[in-house]
Amino acid sequence: MKLQFSEQEEGFRQEVRAFVRERLPEDVRRKVERGLRLERHDYVAWYAKLYERGWITPSWPVEHGGPGWTPVERYIFDEETLLGNAPRIIASGINMLGPVLIAFGSEEQKRRHLPPIRRSEVWWAQGFSEPGAGSDLASMRTSAVREGDDFVVNGHKIWTSYAHFCDWLFCLVRTGSGKPQESISFLLIDLKTPGITVRPIRGIDGGDDLNEVYLDNVRVPAENLIGEVNKGWTYAKYLLGHERTGIAGVGASKQQLARLKRIAATVRDGGRPLIESPGWRERIAALEVELLALEYMGLRMLSGAQIAAAPGVDASLLKIRGTELRQAIYELLLEAAGPAAVPFVEEALFLERADEAPVEPELAALAANFLDSRKLSIYGGANEIQRNLAARALLGL
Amino acid sequence: MDFSLSDEQLQLRDAVQRFCEHEYPAASRGVPDAPARMDERWRLMADMGLLGLPFSAGHGGSELSAVDVMIVMEGLGRALACEPYCSTVVLAGGLVAAAGTPAQADALLPAVVRGERRLAIALDEPGARYDPLPLAAKAMRDGDGYRLDGRKTLVFDGDAADTLIVAARTSGAPGDRDGVTLFLVDATARGVDLHAYPTLDGRRAADFRFTDVRVPADRVLGEAGGGLALVEAALDRGIAALCAEAVGALDALLELTVDYVKVRKQFGVALASFQALQHRLVDMLIACEQARAMAGVAAMAVDGGDAAERARLVSAAKVQVGNAARLVTREAIQMHGAMGMTDECKVGHYAKRLLVIGQSFGDVRHHLRRFGQEALA
Q: How large is the average pLDDT for residues A136-149?
């Protein structure tokens, strides 16, 4: 057992840190640091730098443009970019569709779609959830019927994050009437196709990241089917299980904990900064210990240690604990804001108009960020579903 | 960054597990043993080489690391073993190995390794809670030696110890970092007064009164006046070992509870079929896994060189293990229902051992403050 990262890994850490410091556009950095709204051009500005450096697709194989990092290097990359207040790689094309295309797509599909994803020219939305199919995803009903060279798609997708940014949709559709998991197919749909309506859903934080997509007799060329008809569930499961390195969100927690300490050093209570009060110190320290425990549990799993009591549940445990910890940090951030959490001037959530905030600029977005953080335990398999999965393994059910 | 065990460490783990399964059958865990039985086990542990694990080959030891100590402690924790391993080998033995003169080490360690001599550390004083610093016990120069006066409390395994390591002030005032000196004191020396009592977990501790105890100068352990840093390092080694013991106990509690909810039926179905319990069992599992990771971190930090980093990580581990113990014991008792409230059920015995570990050598709040001094400086 060894607690230190290797010299090579530390060198890599310095390399990433320096890259973020030198290449991350200052306005984007400030938006992330203050939790302000990010738009597609903000992400693209950063992703373009990563693309130039060959770092935009950490989880892709080298032959498709991945950097060939070890799991630990990917871990360090996540952590350092987030600590430097760079935007996360949220693009579903990079995180989700790319690995599926690489594993199951045709040569033509790879040739056509992978390069524009890497260059951030084409943005992809994930069309999985439906109004009647959330945690129970397999009960989805959007249908695709083969007519000549096309599939005709009808249905309603919802919670399609960032669809208002996006150009294309990868979509689960029902193509048969058998067992739910055996009658789902995986289709690529150009969002400009006639019959598609993208409607933003105003979020609890006032943001418009959430969307719903209506598909009304949308004709999709059959060449846009991934793999085989009725095998879509397999591809979807591969997609959901693919990206696990960052599932604990340790980098994101560190980023927000650093923000909490910054804010606690400036916000005063009774004339003294919060960070000097024993009660606040204890609460911040408690979160920091939790974060260490999460981080080392993750690193222990990363180094191959098995959970003897319940093999194969690593990702569920990391997701549960990681999201709950992030939420706890946001709760403490909110408390640090005190009455400054009450005003809500939406325009001031954009950097260009940040001076319209009636409170300290660092505090303006805290309430919105806190509310937004509630999604963490809902998306990516609600924490209740993760607990079901882990319990099944633990109890041998 | 690597959490994997070497082949030798895996062998050690298996050997400890076999020893524990044989020596501490599940049904008798928590049942007090006759002293003769405990002595016999102590000899067996010596024969296996466990008592010499961290010591030099010259003293009959095998020069292994804190990670190896962790492996042993985890096994002992799972078996609810009650021998004074931490007191003798890790805490006091570790101090002698770290600070003793060659003559002191030669006089004590080979006997410890053979199981012929037991040691304990006498640090805490009444009313000091978890702070080693107030330290009112005094040792005055007297000819070519010292005269020791003072009181010590909660000396774990104190009544079984042949030799005590006593911290006393040779200069300065209570609260000063300088002026703390460690002494090797024979438990039978004139003026040593012992009052032993049982602890919550069925083990033993003792209070000591030292009245005009003469200690020769060659029984000073480490540099006179410079004992505090030694004490802090020793406590961190001990805490890391106790964290590992706790992880073993946590594993056992989770296992007992999982087995119980699968077997126990109500309303015609196993308790395990209720989602209200399933989700809480997963939280117990997460607590156990986080505690395990942090116990490993503490062991590695103890082996590392940097004192501030060691303090930060060992305190973090003690906090995490303490919180995990709270959650897992609470839930294990609850899910065992009324059975969990009985002395017959093993759950309570593990719960009490975890409670003692949690309240000893600094509780969660103490270590949160200590962690915060490093992390929020």
A: 95
Which of helix, strand or coil describes residue B334?
A: helix
With beta carbons less than 8 A apart as the criterion, state whether B314 and B301 touch.
yes
C-alpha B367, offset from chain centre: 16
Cβ-contact B145, B215 below 8 angstroms: yes
Q: Which domains, and CATH codes, for chain B? A: 7-118 (1.10.540.10), 120-225 (2.40.110.10), 228-375 (1.20.140.10)
For residue A116, being part of any structural domain is answered with no
Residues in a beta bridge with A218: A153
**Distance of alpha carbon B321 from its chain centroid, rounded?**
13
**Which A residues 315-354 touch B at CB under 8 Å?**
316-317, 320-321
What is the residue type of B26? A
- For residue A224, the domain's CATH number is 2.40.110.10
* Mean local confidence (pLDDT), A48-70: 96
Q: What is the mean pLDDT of residues B132-152?
A: 94
Question: Does A250 lie at the interface with B, CB-CB under 8 angstroms?
Answer: no
CA B203 to chain centre: 12
Q: ipTM of this predicted complex?
A: 0.94
Closest CA to B120 of B41, B246, B234, B212: B234
Residue B28 CB partners (closer than 8 Å, separation 6+): none
Are the Cβ atoms of A395 and B67 closer than 8 angstroms? no
CB A1 within 8 A of CB B5: yes
Residues A18 and A146 both lie in one domain: no
pLDDT at A244 over 70: no
**A382 close contact with B: CB closer than 8 A:** no
Q: Which tokens sit at A67? A: 């950097």
